[in-house]
Amino acid sequence: MAKSATKDMTSGSPTRLMLGFFFPMLFGMLFQQFYNMMDTIIVGKYLGVTALAAVGSTGSINFMIIGFCMGVCNGFAIPVAQKFGEKNESLLRKFAANGAWLSIGFSAVLTVTVCVFCRRILELMNTPADIIDGAYRYIYVIFLGIPATFLYNMVSGIIRSLGDSRTPLIFLVFSSLLNIALDLTTILVLGMGEEGAAWATVISQAVSGIGCFIYMKKRFEILRMTKDEAKPDKNIMLILCNMGVPMGLQYSITAIGSVVLQTAVNGLGSMAVAAVTAGSKISMFFCCPFDALGSTMATYGGQNIGARKLDRISKGFKAAALMGCGYAVLALGVLALFGPSIAILFLERDQTEILGQVHFFLVMNAAFYIPLMFVNVVRFLIQGMGYSKLAVLAGVCEMIARTAVSFCLVPLFGYPAVCLANPAAWIAADLFLIPSYRRIMKNLRTKPGFAIDGD
């Protein structure tokens, strides 16, 4: 499968190529969110609302740290996509090898650091006393699994950069099924509580990462490197860090606003935390197509900027925007009509007040899915093109918006203001990203060596 496993996205119909890459990505993300939802469903149904709130209260800090790991890995994979577009296979392999070395170092430092300080962070976030112990047990184990997070995301990122979005999907499906089985075993059979759900997530991701790595080593000839290509190279590591660290910081900076918001939600009590937890899990599931579009555009943009084909980038952006807008309207309709029924998966039918809060959260967020779509498509596209630092600034815009809502509106309006925080962040990011994309394309068209005639 070595050569055929890759997909060149620099020629042919942009829409057809993007759809072929998008759907495996989408299914993979849906399965990932599915097993994340299963964690929450099993915890909520079998351990109760308090345990559900405990797990949910860690969501923002989880996103801040794990999101950084994922962003760094995505950034490390971008030069691989660019060199694939340039047909520079030797340099491609050097970037892949040095990305692996950096991932080992980053994972070791992060694991030790966050495990030491995670209890203190939960205390600073004003986590309610009745859920803080369960929250700590859960998030500590998740952070112990940071090396597994780096392994899967680094390997799958490299494979996707070569145009293959199906292989990571296969391993993710297996991981999802394993996670569900481990959830049931650790919580219902072994009685491990919130900690059991965390171990199920970590173990299943580790298995998926190991399987993906073994497959990549055996089946991708383009990645079979010489000893010289596998050696650490300071210059290449610097290039990778210039790509990966800004992307990781983009996630973390965005998450700082979420941490501030979570602190405000914690002040409203454990029932509000449970409502936001259930609403966020459902919304994340429905947002998977936007995430898949974003990841598609990162690879598409990376390969085509490497091939110096600007018109293909513009065509790909328009196609992604049309697909995203169509789905956004559909998702709003589904959540408006069936939101309470979906929320029953997490909560008991007689918890009518919380169910109503979840429904309100879902509708308010879904009403702004089109701005969210542009955040994902534009941000990942310009990252793939090599402008990852601009994506960091977009993350700053999101952080400022969420922080402003948390400090200014939540104390005055309570839970309804919480539901406006994400839409405010998405709009703020778009106000920066869309003009930035237009400016980038205008500047690139004046440079020599960039094609203006599509294929």
List the helices and strands and how they pair.
Layout: H1 14-46, H2 49-56, H3 59-86, H4 89-124, H5 132-144, H6 146-161, H7 166-189, H8 193-219, H9 227-230, H10 234-266, H11 270-286, H12 288-306, H13 310-343, H14 352-366, H15 369-384, H16 388-413, H17 415-445
Largest sheet: none
Question: How many H/I helical runs?
Answer: 17
State the total count of DSSP E strands.
0
Q: What is the strand content?
A: under 5%
Low-confidence stretches: 451-455
Helix content: over 70%
Number of domains: 1
Rg over alpha carbons? 21 Å
Separation, N- and C-terminal Cα atoms = 26 Å
Task: Tell me, rounded to a whole number, the average pLDDT.
Answer: 83
- The dominant shape is globular
Strand/helix succession: HHHHHHHHHHHHHHHHH
Helix-strand makeup class: mainly alpha
How would you describe this protein?
Mean pLDDT is 83; it is low at 451-455. Helix content is 84%, strand content 0%. The two termini are 26 Å apart. It is built from 17 helices and no strands. It has one domain. It has helices spanning 14-46, 49-56, 59-86, 89-124, 132-144, 146-161, 166-189, 193-219, 227-230, 234-266, 270-286, 288-306, 310-343, 352-366, 369-384, 388-413, 415-445. Helix 3 (59-86) packs parallel to helix 6 (146-161), helix 7 (166-189) packs antiparallel against helix 8 (193-219) and helix 10 (234-266) runs parallel beside helix 16. The protein has 455 residues and is mostly helical.
Question: Which features characterize this protein?
Answer:
455 residues; mainly alpha; globular; disordered C terminus
